[in-house]
Design brief:
The complex is a heterodimer of chains A (503) and B (442). Chain A has 503 residues and is an alpha/beta fold. Chain A has 15 helices and 17 strands. Chain B is α/β, with parallel strands linked by helices and 442 residues long. The chains are: A alpha/beta (503), B alpha/beta (442).
Chain lengths: 503, 442
């Protein structure tokens, strides 16, 4: 995988190095080497089998007496035509065992219902309550099943037939993304030769450059890094985050070229420091900020204290310091304070249902934060990250449209590892996870990589449909969002009984 | 049959056995002889909507004990109802209540096509469905003096017997597009986008792109086909106009339909298409059916048809061209009530696709793209598997569709008479005859 910002990477232009003049032949050779070393970013997904499979989608019940009666009657009716007698009403193999319907294989059932329509007297197909009871009202069984498939195959889920859910809905479901009938980011498809970039920048860009009278640069350059995908791996509940899980987070983040946010004490005690690891440190242990080596590029302070921030940023000038904060009462003032203090990376955290303490959904909160920065003319000086409530591939572009640069994901990674979440999953610290009994770290890592590959490809589908060529341009593009409440108002306001306000 | 066993063309006895079991089973479920299958249905197509469609397709009448009007999606059509008059003001139920619409509203020399009902069949390509399904839809369209679209996959030879009722679709992959089929068609449909996968082009996964399908499409067998998006020759509305000129040169009599998705600027797209020469603006909403589409596209890209139709209708009025163009809605229209609501919101008529398949037995299991078996629909609808496609026999399909449309027309007339209207064209844009409910229509 390509890792950007590596210090050893030679960024000089051909012919502009120490040997400033090259012959034509040298130039051609050097150019060829550069061209051949180009690595187009791609996430290598590999189908990765289940270790703790989800419950079957359907329960298959076959009345044995009814089946026996049918067989006997068909033996007489179709005597000699044994292929007709033993034809089984399933193309998916539910009745493909040695004794057919007498011992069905429900794990193969996809719910086509042909068997129960053909033989209503003795075959019943029902949704499996063991599956539908997984998760909670937000991270529900449908989302869990989808993540499981994405983590297994690493592909974009494709199905026939149309949409099956509710019209609009609360939260992210109240937004549709726009598309263009003509404009495309590339003319050979979203996976074609032309790259649709999902790179995002973390850090601060100077709003302008300053030069002295002699033309020398006097202002500081950009203090930022780039990651290849608009999401980072956030730390789950403390009770779940073990050193082993942290290593998996780190390895997967390195493979994908993103960041893994891991509690600082785990980073230190397990020697996990790396350019792809962001240690989360409490205000009480802020003095450890400079202790993370091995190319650590950023640390994250868990909370805001201007004095602490000032102290560690001045003593670690090359280290990016991000601040983790929740949407609590007075967050707007705190945001302003942080901006004034020069904080360049702010990581908002909501609960796992995407709500602040008062039950307000993050979509509105992100928009508010983004617009505050826009009005102040400071949006490009600050990177906004957000964690909490992003559990499906479509939530990712929607959060970015609302104004964040990138999102943090944690629960989807656990689900990708086939962990069963137990307890209050809405609360960031209120749950535990039961992992598969035996699994290899490489298996878990690949499941996470697969999930990221699938989500990135789905991001490309959304960007491609819009005709947008890079995800950075999607940030805050609220003109490319269509809000259910607005459109309903426009369409139905003349209709008697319409009161608006969403559903 | 085990999935490892190669499919073979089934014997007559086998076809007789399987089709009888399927037909009897569907009837047994709709008549209440057996319970509603617990795994049937979802919020948009509820179990009752599927069973009532089966009932209509079997009998040509509306069911007594099933909700055949609305789903449970909590919005859109499912929140709308009609402000019917008091019973004494209702018109008599009669075949004199006109359900015919005019497709060519331009003052030009082209055909004045008037289907008997404000409905025609949406594009489902050869490859995504079998020839049996295509032919059943085409013969049904002929029986009803309406139309069906080929979809993007070519024009199988068998369809020529119904040429006056078959729309040739020209989509971005240009699969199977031939001068001959363009010349044969009364309507040429340019598919810019599809509601279920706006901005993404068609998908036909490898397992369904068999020898015959590949031959028709001019492609390599068992290689997945992804249509490009958009038309590589279209960068502007002027390019779109050139497309229309091109087709009109080949077939000067054909009407031009432009099928687009429902983005933010769908109203502007509609106006542009009209000025480029379109007779029909066909809006395909985000909840439409598909043979295969990324799940993320179905829900999240582009708006539902209920919201797009009034937006476009109002804008066309504002531009002073509403009377000169036919506005057709599709993508999530399931029932006669949905059809009437779409028209009241501003459409002239609708296109049905999924409903046709449900009438022919579809349970919406979503395995059309091949499913784990790789063979496509186990009901014989969205498949070209030589064995499976025989489970949907053409004659039976025609009967089902004819019956289903009889029931749809009956219900449409029922709605019109209860609103005091004697012609479906009087319903266009009459949002004053709708009421927004806070429950799902029941």
């Amino acid at each position: 995988m390509q890792l950007l910002n590596k210090p050893e990477e030679n960024q000089s232009m051909i012919g502009m190095g120490e040997k400033s003049r090259l012959t034509i032949a040298e130039f051609a050779k050097e150019s060829r080497i550069r061209a051949d070393s180009y690595h187009r970013y791609h996430i290598d997904t590999i189908e990765t089998k289940d270790r703790q499979a989800l419950p079957n989608r359907f329960l298959v019940s076959v009345g044995k007496l009814g089946l026996a009666k049918l067989l006997i009657s068909e033996v007489f009716e179709y005597w000699g035509k044994w292929d007709v007698v033993f034809a089984r009403p399933c193309t998916y193999g539910v009745f493909s065992g040695p004794v057919g319907g007498f011992s069905p294989r429900p794990e193969k059932c996809v719910g086509c219902l042909r068997c129960t329509i053909e033989h209503p007297e003795f075959v019943t197909i029902s949704p499996n309550p063991a599956l539908s009871s997984l998760g909670d009202s937000y991270l529900n069984s449908t989302i869990i099943s989808t993540i499981d498939e994405e983590a297994k195959k690493g592909t974009v889920p494709v199905r026939g037939q149309g949409y099956r859910g509710r019209f609009g809905g609360p939260g992210w479901d109240g937004m549709w993304t726009d598309m263009s009938e003509i404009v495309r980011p590339s003319r050979d498809g979203i996976h074609g030769r032309e790259l649709i970039s999902t790179i995002v920048d973390i850090g601060s860009k100077p709003m302008r450059l300053q030069f002295d009278a002699d033309g020398g640069l006097v202002s500081a350059g950009p203090k930022m890094m780039s990651i290849q995908v608009p999401f980072v791996f956030d730390s789950p509940a403390k009770s779940v985050m073990t050193p082993r899980l942290a290593k998996i987070w780190k390895t997967a983040a390195e493979q994908v070229d993103t960041l893994a946010l891991i509690p600082g004490e785990i980073v230190t005690s397990n020697n996990l420091a790396s350019p792809s690891v962001v240690p989360i440190i409490s205000l009480d242990s802020s003095e450890t900020a400079g202790s993370f080596k091995n190319g650590t590029r950023m640390v994250q302070l868990d909370g805001w204290n201007p004095t602490v921030y000032s102290s560690i940023s001045s003593s670690n000038p090359d280290l990016m310091i991000s601040i983790r904060m929740s949407f609590e009462e007075g967050w707007q003032e705190q945001l302003n304070e942080m901006i004034d203090a020069g904080v360049s990376v702010i990581h908002f955290v909501a609960n796992n249902h995407g709500e602040d303490g008062g039950g307000r959904f993050i979509m509105d909160l992100i928009v508010e934060a983004h617009e505050m920065l826009l009005k102040a003319g400071l949006r490009d000086k600050v990177t906004l990250l957000h964690s909490g409530g992003v559990v499906a591939a479509d939530h990712l572009p929607k959060a970015i449209i609302c104004g964040v640069d990138a999102v943090g994901i944690d629960l989807p990674l656990l689900v990708a590892m086939q962990a069963r979440l137990i307890g209050d999953t809405s609360n960031r610290e209120g749950y535990t996870a039961k992992f598969p009994r035996k699994f290899k770290d490489s298996w878990a890592c690949q499941r996470i990589v697969n999930l990221t590959g699938s989500w990135r490809d789905q991001m490309l589908e959304i960007l491609g449909a819009m005709g947008i060529r890079e995800v950075r341009r999607l940030r805050g593009e609220m003109g490319r969002a269509m809000w259910c409440t607005h459109l309903e108002e426009e369409a139905f306001s003349e209709i008697e009984g319409f009161i608006g306000g969403g559903i | 049959m085990s999935k490892n066993k190669l499919p073979v063309f089934p014997s007559k006895t086998m076809i007789h056995k399987i089709t009888n079991l399927l037909h009897d089973g569907m009837d047994a479920r709709t008549t209440g002889k057996f319970e509603v299958p617990p795994a049937l249905g979802d919020a948009r197509w509820t179990d009752e909507l599927i069973l009532s469609t089966w009932h209509m397709a079997a009998t040509g009448t509306l069911p007594d004990n099933l909700n055949y009007k609305t789903g449970k999606s909590n919005g859109g059509f499912d929140r709308l109802d009609f402000k019917t008059l008091d019973e004494e003001q209702w018109l008599k139920h009669s075949e004199d209540i006109s359900t015919s619409i005019q497709l060519n509203r331009r003052d030009d020399h082209r055909k004045k096509l008037s289907p008997a009902i404000p409905i025609y069949g949406g594009g489902m390509s050869y490859g995504s469905v079998s020839v049996n399904v295509m032919m059943a839809r085409a013969i049904h369209a002929k029986n009803w003096n309406t139309y069906m679209s080929t979809g993007e996959g070519g024009y199988p030879e068998e369809l020529y017997e119904c040429r006056d009722n078959v729309i040739t679709q020209v989509a971005t992959g240009l699969f199977g597009v031939e001068e001959k089929s363009i010349q044969a068609s009364p309507i040429i449909e340019f598919k810019y986008a599809q509601g279920a996968k706006p901005g993404l082009g068609g998908h036909l996964l490898a397992s369904k792109a068999g020898e015959e399908v590949a031959k028709m499409r001019g492609s390599v067998p068992f290689v997945s086909l992804f249509s490009p998006f958009p038309f590589h020759s279209t960068y502007s509305v002027e390019d779109h106009s050139k497309h229309i000129d091109w087709v009109q040169t080949i077939n000067p009599d054909a009407l031009i339909s432009v099928k687009v998705s429902t983005p933010h600027d769908v109203d502007m797209v509609a106006v542009g298409s009209y000025y480029a020469g379109a007779h029909i603006i066909h809006l395909d909403g985000g909840f439409g059916g598909t043979g295969a589409a990324p799940e993320i596209a179905k829900k999240n890209i582009a708006m539902p048809i209920e919201l797009a139709v009034p937006k476009v209708h109002k804008f066309l009025i504002k531009e002073g061209i509403r009377e000169n163009v036919t506005l057709i809605a599709s993508g999530g229209i399931r029932t006669a009530d949905d059809i009437a609501k779409a028209i009241a919101l501003g459409a002239n008529g609708v296109v049905l696709g999924t409903s046709d398949l449900v009438a022919m037995g579809c349970t919406r299991c979503a395995n059309c793209e091949g499913g784990p078996s790789g063979r496509g629909c186990p009901w014989g609808l969205t498949t070209t598997d030589i064995e499976l496609q025989e489970w949907m026999q053409q004659d039976w399909g025609v009967k089902r569709l004819d019956n289903y449309y009889t029931a749809l027309q009956w219900r449409l007339r029922d709605i019109l008479r209860k609103l005091g209207l004697s012609d479906v064209n009087e319903l266009v844009g009459r949002t004053d005859l709708l009421v927004y409910t806070r429950s799902d229509g029941e």
